[in-house]
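seq:
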Amino acid sequence: MPKLVVVDHPLVQHKLALMRRKETPTAEFRQLVKEIALLLGYEICRDLPLEEVEVETPLERTTVRMLSGKKLCLVSVLRAGNGLLEGMLDLIPSARVGHIGLYRDPETLQPVEYYYKVPSDIAERQVILVDPMLATANSAVAAVHKVKASGATDIKYACLLAAPEGVEKFQAAHPDVPIFTAALDRALNDHGYIMPGLGDAGDRIYGTR
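struct:
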């Protein structure tokens, strides 16, 4: 699948395996989400632009490479996206943050927007959208449409799990946006949940299951 990156690092896969277990408690699940987000972030940020600057070490003056341009913007799809957001911010603490409030209508499986707030200069920043599950992709497609409408052109999408159906729909709508995930699971069930999956990410992060 074009522009789909499955981060199969052993640490990512081990932590994801722990998250899949139904007996994993809320506190541990939340911490694992944060840790996987940090590891995904390393891969997502692999191509960030650098510039050469001079610094003074304790021994001499030298040229080093540092990030250039505007700081990243992390956009969380509420509510479960905040679990990934925390790990990403540990890695990139200077990033700007936006939020999109979407929920999936249980009957139509279509996204309903209830909140949107992003930096005013988002068009000048690289955007990383974070949302744990790429299932039907309805919410993900809507979220990308929204940030594009705000002027963003350099966008990446990060999730814990993806379903083939969701990847196909997302890439048809936004072929320019790469997807980074820890696993591509088997399929969706009749209720639009990823199988084998890990359950409802938001419920398991916040203990509302």
